[in-house]
Amino acid sequence: KVPSSAALFTPGLRSVAELFEKKNYELRIAGGAVRDLLSGVTPQDIDFATTATPAEMKEMFTAAGVRLINNKGEKHGTITARLHEQNFEITTLRIDVVTDGRHAEVEFTTDWHKDAERRDLTVNSMFLGLDGTLYDFFNGYEDLKNKKIRFVGKAAERIQEDYLRILRYFRFYGRIAEKPGDHEPITLQAIRENAKGLAGISGERIWVELKKILVGNHVNHLVQLMYELDIAQYIGLPLNGNLEEFARVSKHIQNLSPKPMTVLTSLFKGKDDVTNLDLRLKISKEEKNLGLFLVKHRQELTKGPGPEPLRPYQDFLMDSREANTNSKIFELLKYQGEEQLLKEMQEWTVPSFPVSGHDLRKMGVSSGKEIGTALQQLRDEWKKSGYHMDKEELLSCLKKL
Known about the structure:
Blueprint: H1 11-22, E1 27-30, H2 32-38, E2 47-50, H3 54-63, E3 67-69, E4 78-83, E5 86-92, E6 94-99, E7 104-108, H4 112-117, E8 127-129, E9 134-135, H5 140-145, H6 155-161, H7 165-176, H8 185-194, H9 203-214, H10 219-228, H11 243-253, H12 260-265, H13 271-281, H14 285-297, H15 311-319, H16 325-335, H17 339-347, H18 357-362, H19 368-384, H20 391-400
Helix pairs in contact: 6-8, 7-9, 10-11, 13-14, 14-16, 19-20
């Protein structure tokens, strides 16, 4: 038995549980939420599994006046009910009939063991009864306690059902395993032999997994492994990625909460690598721009000598005409491992230029062209002063000019 997590038992869950109990349908918490609860983590969202079919659930909920949210899950057997301001995603136990490496056709079952059998990893294949009973057919709890990541049954079979599971293996390894390099040889062999299958998986699905790997633990180990096992080329990573730079950057960046793209860019030698990644994974415009920014500026936009190390970054920001340059500079500082400068830069507020055309008119500069030139000259003086000169100083400067 698992000690009950009182926080789970919301009024909504109590009502759902009562409905199922009345009808004698079994209802258990499934998969990731069980893994989280056993690890002492509060689950982000809770999936439920049941012996009731979608039709039976619909009938039961409708009769009880419960609102159903239609979200295309029904053909996979998922019904979403809304009670007490909370959504409950409940899926009928199922068996995969046909799989093509991307998606499965399913049929429903009342056999919990068979449903657990088609899940990817042992730590994700457990069920938890609402009374606290753990149903664990594949030693998932043992593996979780020993921080072991293993496929349910034969690794190659699980992978061939959905090749994305290769990346899920890496992602959970980065979340649960204690140290790098603790893999079963047979698992690595199955991954190597099936790596090509990733070529058929959509870029969007790959990118979701890859981003989580990049900000998880053991990222350097896992990316090196992607190259060793010949996966990299199928997921948009450059053939000759800069693994030395990746090792260097990924080491000091972990604690700075980098964006996934910031970590990944250290593999790239030039902007073509960013373009190719985008072609394969359909990354967002913001992610692409960040990658291009880092590749372009990581070498020459570095801290200033002497007492004002932040100056080059500040000047760059002040001269920039683009939106969110600020956040790109934060990512650059993380990339460079400049933790102290990052803090200072985050606290620095962009000063506003104290002089306006209006001030110059008052001083008798009349033509628009002259005003433009004068403002530009004053801006340069202001910049040279580290943005410290105030309106008075600048205007007296103008008289000298």
